[in-house]
Amino acid sequence: MSSCRVLVPARTRRRGFTLAELIVSVASASLLLAGMMSAIFLAIRSADTNADTALAVEGSFVLEDIVAELRDAVYFKQRTATVVSFTVPDRDGDGDVESIRYSWSGIAGGSLMRTYNGGTAIAVVENVYGFALDYKTQVNPISGRVLMVVPDEYNLDTDDTGKKSAMEGWGYTVTPVSPKRDNNELDTMAALVDAIYISENILSSDLNTKLNDATAGIVNEEAALHDDLKLSSAGGGAYTGTQIRIADNTHYVTSAFAIGAVQMATSAQPIVTMSGTLAPDLQVLTQDSSGTTPSLTVIGTGGALQDGTAAAGPRITLSMGNDFTFSALHSNGLTLLQRALDWAARKYVVTSVGIKLQTGNDTSSAVQTRTEVFSRPRA
Fold it and tell me: Which tens digit of pLDDT belongs to each residue from 94-123?
């Protein structure tokens, strides 16, 4: 009997990883993972950089628009670090200047707002983390001549003599003139001076509207001329007291004072207030002591007057008048008077405005520029 052999397949032997291979594999995987993480990090960083660049580009476009308007400014209504309000020449052919205002609340993440001719404020850019303005001013080389309108140009009373002396002490050359002169004479004299000062001692009927076409700045004490100068629909009034209230200190005239009560006189004196409907572009800088009635007001060249015409030059109404005793004027009152005259005479002008804008919370998105103001408007 023959025998048969059963063949059994040989068992396959499975070989494992050596320690050296494992170490190499782990090291390779670590290098690959590190590379991937670096790539992800660079991609994220690149995205952040691109975002900041986009914000900076957007900010640059906004600055270009602001600069295009600011450099044409002819009058500044407000000048602060975060708000600028100004007028530019007529754009729509109606003969009136256009009013523009840029403002930021100062709250991080808020919007930079633009208002045009008193309309609804519109956001020009959102998510603002910084908006700063600075203004360069300089002394304007003016002649320093003032035409002082008084009852008798050859015989000034005590009060007008005191005012004239004060003006001369501030470096002005003062020429008294009677309001009874005819229009041609007054027009000729007004064309040769930097400012016109109207004493409250005159009769308003002697002057009336004779100086309305003067391009020189007018500083007016006479309340009865408020309507003749087209600053209001009615002549002004007065109250007796020693104080006024600063309502707006963003204008050069009142910028030396804080908002609130300020002593105007050392003893009770008549303090002038405005009455009737005010000119649309009249800016109220001070009020009566209770803070309810306008007192010292200003309007810039080209501003809309009460009758709808444009102001030929800057105008300012003072708080003193109606038999105010000049010697009782407090030092605060003298400061206001000097600044009013300096402003009317264009003694100080704005030459340029610096602007810095940051959108987003990364400072790398901040952009800044400085623009010249072509017309050198009053500071």
Answer: 888 999 999 999 999 999 999 999 999 999
Q: Tens digits of per-residue pLDDT, 361-371?
A: 989 889 999 99
* Cβ atoms of residues 373 and 73 within 8 Å: yes
> Any bridge partners for residue 103, and if so which?
83, 113
Indicate whether 273 belongs to any domain.
yes
Domain count, the chain: 2
**Residue 173 belongs to domain with CATH number:** 3.40.50.880
87 domain-assigned? yes
Q: Give every CB contact of residue 67 below 8 A, 6+ residues apart in sequence.
A: 355, 369, 371
Q: Is the pTM of this model over 0.85?
A: no
Domain that holds residue 285: 145-346
229/103 same-domain check:
no
In a domain, 28, yes or no: yes
pLDDT over 50 at 47, yes or no: no
Q: Give the pLDDT score at 281.
A: 94
6 belongs to a structural domain? no
- d(CA 91, CA 120) in angstroms, rounded, equals 19
Determine phi and psi for 250, rounding to 5 degrees: -90, -5
